[in-house]
């Protein structure tokens, strides 16, 4: 979810949205436009790319209007503005016009940093829109989507949705909206599975879960579906490695520790501790070692060390499922 500074008035003279997550950048713009049109239904919105904002254009757009109309000027990819246009924008930041909100979308980073620094120095409202590359970030995003509309979803449901949909934030947001519209009451894992069963079955984490549970046939079925629907083999080996390592971590953890304490120590959410605890029945230390070797061999196989990545994965899944019954 986009993070905002303490100065959070959408109608502040200048807003900067910083980052590369397109959905969050679009939402930052939408929030300003909605607030402006709530104040004045006739608000004029100008959405510009760097090539459309030439030297002098900003002065023209922000010059006093005969009718004193409210206006929102959105500048996308502000880091790509020409040097002369950046001078115009910096000058404007020192004396912003009334009834006009300037929204600068900036990717962050070194390019165009002078403009970003100038906007911050001028006291611009800032919204951080970082690219969500980590599963934990996307999980937090999904939880936030449900929370924002006052709905509840179980941790397992949120995790399943992330695993089923993948990394596209727009698709995750759309899935959350669909579930909220269609489902009354608590949204749980069974609901997510019912709506997104085809995609969920193709999830690399589904393959890993079935394998570490010793359910070889189901793991192989999920694996073949995943491969047929385009899931990258390296994602599957990564999920298998995570599944086996989680078993090993929990097996070596102090007995009797509370899930919350284990979660902090092992770097897992509490709900995952409970899931792994159920999965680890039947595992032995030798079984974990055997499974890790199988994952390493599969990883080498899918990265060019073998002729058939699918076969390397199938072999690993079978070995892991057998290891899950080694005790």
From TrEMBL:
The DNA polymerase III delta N-terminal domain extends over 18-107
What are the recorded Gene Ontology BP terms? DNA-templated DNA replication
Q: Which reaction does it catalyse?
A: DNA(n) + a 2'-deoxyribonucleoside 5'-triphosphate = DNA(n+1) + diphosphate
Keywords assigned: DNA replication, DNA-directed DNA polymerase, Nucleotidyltransferase, Transferase
Q: Which residues form the DNA polymerase III delta subunit-like C-terminal domain?
A: 202-317
Q: Name the enzyme's class.
A: transferase
Which InterPro entries does its entry note? DNA_pol3_clamp-load_cplx_C (IPR008921), DNA_pol3_delta-like_C (IPR048466), DNA_pol3_delta_N (IPR010372), DNA_polIII_delta (IPR005790), P-loop_NTPase (IPR027417)
State the Gene Ontology terms under molecular function: DNA binding; DNA-directed DNA polymerase activity
List the GO cellular component terms.
DNA polymerase III complex
Q: Which Pfam families match?
A: DNA_pol3_delta (PF06144), DNA_pol3_delta_C (PF21694)
| EC annotation from Swiss-Prot or TrEMBL | 2.7.7.7
Which NCBIfam families is this protein grouped with?
A: holA
State the family it belongs to.
Belongs to the DNA polymerase HolA subunit family.
> In its UniProt entry, what is this protein called?
DNA polymerase III subunit delta
Tell me the organism's taxonomic lineage.
Bacteria, Bacillati, Actinomycetota, Actinomycetes, Kitasatosporales
């Amino acid at each position: 979810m986009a993070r905002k500074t303490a100065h959070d008035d959408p109608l502040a003279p200048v807003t900067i949205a910083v980052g590369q997550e397109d959905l969050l950048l679009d939402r930052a713009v939408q929030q300003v436009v909605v607030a402006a049109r709530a104040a004045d239904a006739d608000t004029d919105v100008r959405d510009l790319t760097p090539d459309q904002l030439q030297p002098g254009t900003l002065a023209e757009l922000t010059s006093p209007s005969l009718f004193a109309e409210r206006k929102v000027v959105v500048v996308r990819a502000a880091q790509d503005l020409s040097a002369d246009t950046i001078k115009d924008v910096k000058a404007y930041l020192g004396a912003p016009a009334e009834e006009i909100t300037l929204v600068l979308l900036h990717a962050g980073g070194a390019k165009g940093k002078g403009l970003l620094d100038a906007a911050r120095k001028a006291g611009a409202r800032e919204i951080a829109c970082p690219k969500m590359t980590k599963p934990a970030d996307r999980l937090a995003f999904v939880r936030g989507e449900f929370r924002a509309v006052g709905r509840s979803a179980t941790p397992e449901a949120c995790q399943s949705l992330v695993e089923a949909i993948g990394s596209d934030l727009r698709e995750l947001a759309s899935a959350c909206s669909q579930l909220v519209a269609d489902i009354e009451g608590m949204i749980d894992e069974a609901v997510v599975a019912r709506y997104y069963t085809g995609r969920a079955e193709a999830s690399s984490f589904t393959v890993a879960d079935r394998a570490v549970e010793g359910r070889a046939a189901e793991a192989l079925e999920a694996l073949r579906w995943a491969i047929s629907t385009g899931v990258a083999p390296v994602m599957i080996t990564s999920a298998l490695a995570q599944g086996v390592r989680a078993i090993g971590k929990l097996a070596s953890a102090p007995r009797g520790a509370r899930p919350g304490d284990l979660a902090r120590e092992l770097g897992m959410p509490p709900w995952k501790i409970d899931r792994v605890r159920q999965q680890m029945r039947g595992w032995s230390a030798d079984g974990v070692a055997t499974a890790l070797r199988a994952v390493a061999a599969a990883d080498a196989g899918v990265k060019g060390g073998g002729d058939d990545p699918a076969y390397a994965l199938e072999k690993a899944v079978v070995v892991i499922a057998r290891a899950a019954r080694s005790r």
